[in-house]
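Journal club prep — side note

Before the paper discussion, L.F. wants everyone to see what a predicted structure for a comparable chain looks like in token form. Sequence:
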Amino acid sequence: MIVEATSQERLSITDQMVEWCDGHARAMCAGAKTKSFKHDCLQSHDVYLIGKIGELAVHLWLRSLGIKIIHKPFRRSYAYFDTKDDFIVEGYGGQYQLEVRTKARSVDMQPHYECCTDCIKPHLTYVFVNYNRAAHTTEIVGFADEELMRANVRPVLKGAGNCNFAHKANEYNI
């Protein structure tokens, strides 16, 4: 169970938005090297692109809600890895660090679909985004803090089978 987003507006992704996100994805590929938590290799351009599209959707969603954004994860250079390079927002009596998790699909999100993350950190609020590549849309699925995550995740261990593949790393599905 994820707390559903209160303003679940669908966002159309334009070619211009994809180009902007692609520029950030390319800069990330050229910057600090990070490994995929699902594969034992360097993170791919496509994964960075999907992530940036999700972050752009969250940025636009937060702005539409009038939430004050202290820090956003878009920068000129990605030469170094920054563990706090997420959204930091202010509201509801405090500041919160948001970790965006975007899943690319060729269909709209369905109630039985899962979102996942490689870890659960106490200082993060996870925001889940569905990116429909075929329809060129995103939607904010919902969000969960550590307490909600720990109460509702299903751990999937490395090597576990899932349809036509085996998981290459531990992950948490919600």
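L.F.'s comment for the group: Residues 45-65 form the longest helix (21 residues). Keep this in mind when we get to the figures.
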